[in-house]
C-alpha cells in the first residue's frame, strides 16, 4: 500500500428513518443498508475520482453492531473483493473508532490512553501498540451515549438525543443541580451511568412539569456535566497511573462540545497531549474503518471468505 490520504468519506445518515420511532429500529436499519449501500459506494468513488478497478483492498466492519446491518456490509465487501480480485479485511468496529484519531493525527503514537464513548460502548483502553489493546475499564450498565439518548427522551428532546442535549445545554447552567457522579471504587476504571439516569428521572418526576419545561437546558447541562466529570476524571487518572502523557477521545459521544472542552482544558492544565478526532470522524464513519483496515492490510493481514458478522464482538478480537 502506498502513502495514505483520505479521498472520500460519505456518510449516509439513517436518523430521519429512525426519528419517528425514537430509536434505531433494527429491521429498518438493515433494509436501509441494503438500499443505500451501492449508491453510497458509487458516491464515494465519484467523490474520490476513482474507478472500482483502481482500488487495492477493501475493509469492512464485521462487528460489534446490529446483525442485519453487518451482514449487508460484510456480504458487499466480500462481493467486491471477489469481483475485483483484491484483498479483504474485516475490521473490529471498536478498533475503527480507536483509529479515528489517526485520520487527523497521524503522529498519534502508542502507548496512549483512549476513551471510547459511543451509543453501544464505553471503554477506557490502553493502546499499547496499534493492534494491541488493554481494556482498563468499561461500563457495567448503560453506555455513555445510551445515557444521553435516554435522558434526552425524558426531556422530550427527540432523537438522536446526544446532539440535542449538547445543543440545548449550551444555554443551561451546569451547576443548576448536582446529579450524582458514579466513581465506583477508587482505582477502578469501570463506569456506571444507570444511577445517574435514574436520578435524572426521579428529579424530573419530583418537580412540576412547568418547572421542568422552563429548566430543560439547565437539567441537560447538569446531566452532561456529571457525565463529563466522570469520563474526564477516570481517563486522566488512568493515563497518570500508567505514566502516559497522551490521551485520546473517540466514538459518537466524543462529538460532545462540553466533553471536548473539558478534555482540552484538563490536558492543557496538566501538560498532556490530547487527540480529538474532528466531529465527523467521531460518529460511525467509513474513514475510520478504512484507516484501521489499511494498517492491517499493510502489515500483510487478510480475511478469507469465511469472515462472519459478529454482533457482540469484543475489542480483544482485533481486525481479521
Ligand atoms: O459511535 P456512534 O456513531 O455509534 C455507535 O457505535 O454506537 O455513537 C452514537 C452515539 C449516540 O448515542 C449519540 O446520541 C451520541 O453518540 N452522540 C452524542 C453527540 N453526538 C452523537 N452524544 C453527546 N453529544 C453529542 N454531540
Ligand atoms: Zn460506532
Short description:
With 320 residues, the chain is an alpha/beta fold. Helices cover 48% and strands 12% of the residues.
What is the fold's blueprint, element by element?
Elements: H1 15-18, H2 26-48, E1 58-63, H3 67-84, E2 88-92, H4 93-99, H5 101-104, E3 112-117, E4 122-129, E5 132-138, H6 144-154, H7 161-169, H8 194-206, H9 209-214, H10 216-241, E6 246-250, H11 257-270, E7 273-275, H12 279-282, H13 286-298
Helix pairs in contact: 2-3, 4-13, 6-7, 6-8, 6-10, 7-10, 10-11
The structure holds 5'-O-[(R)-(carboxyoxy)(hydroxy)phosphoryl]adenosine and zinc ion.
Write a structural description.
The protein has helices at residues 15-18, 26-48, 67-84, 93-99, 101-104, 144-154, 161-169, 194-206, 209-214, 216-241, 257-270, 279-282, 286-298; strands at residues 58-63, 88-92, 112-117, 122-129, 132-138, 246-250, 273-275. The protein has 320 residues and is an alpha/beta fold. The chain has a five-stranded mixed sheet with strand order 5-4-3-6-7, with helices on both faces. A two-stranded parallel sheet has the order 1-2. 42% of the residues are buried. Residues 93, 97, 118, 284 line the site of zinc ion (ZN).
Q: Descriptors for this entry?
A:
two-stranded parallel ribbon; 7 strands; binds zinc ion; binds 5'-O-[(R)-(carboxyoxy)(hydroxy)phosphoryl]adenosine; five-stranded mixed β-sheet
